[in-house]
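Lab notebook, bench 4. Still working through the backlog of constructs that have no structural model yet. Next entry is a single chain of 187 residues. Request: give me the C-alpha cells for it.
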Amino acid sequence: MRQARGERLALFAECVLAGLLTLIAAVPLVTLLPALGAGCDHIAAHLDGRSTALSAYPRRLLMSFRRGGLGLGALLVPVLGVLTLDLLAVRRGLPGAAPVAVICAAATITLLVVVLRAAAVWRPGGPSWPVLLRDAAVRARADPAGSLLLVGGLGMLIVCTWQLPPLVIPALGCLLMGGVAVERRIS
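Model written out:
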C-alpha cells in the first residue's frame, strides 16, 4: 500500500511541476498551445516511464513550437479575445444579449476543450498541431462524456483560481492530467 501512496504522490508532484512550467511558458499567451502540449507530454512521460527531468520540459516546448504550435497559438489568442470581448459587451445589456452570451460561452468552452484534447495527445515527433486540432475536434464530438469531464476540469480551474489564485498551479496541472486521462480512456 505504501508504494501505491508514493506513486500517487509522485503523480501529483509531476502535475504541480507541469502546472508551474506550463503557466510560466504560457505567460506570453501566444505560447499557450505549445505550453499545454509540453505540459501534457510531461505528465504522459511520467505515466509511461520516460524522463520527467526539469531539463526535458524546455526540449518538449521547443519541439511543440516547431510543429506549428506558435502560429496556431498566435491565432488562438485573438479568437479567445474576441469571444471574451463579446461576452463583456453582452453584459452591458445590448439587445439580444442572452442568445449571444450563450453562443459565445459555448464557443469558448468548445474551443478550450478541443485545444485541451489536442494538447493531451501531442508528442514530440508526432503529428503537427493542425492535424491534432482537427482530430481533437472529431474526438470531442464522438466522446461527449470525455468532453464534459474536461468542461468540469475547466470549471474547477476557474473556481480554484477565483477562490485562491495560487491554486492555479496545481489546478492547471490536474487539468493537464485530466486531459491525458480522458484521451487514454478512449484509446
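Notes after review: The helical segments are 2-25, 32-48, 56-90, 97-121, 129-142, 144-163, 168-186. The mean pLDDT is 91. Flag for follow-up if needed.
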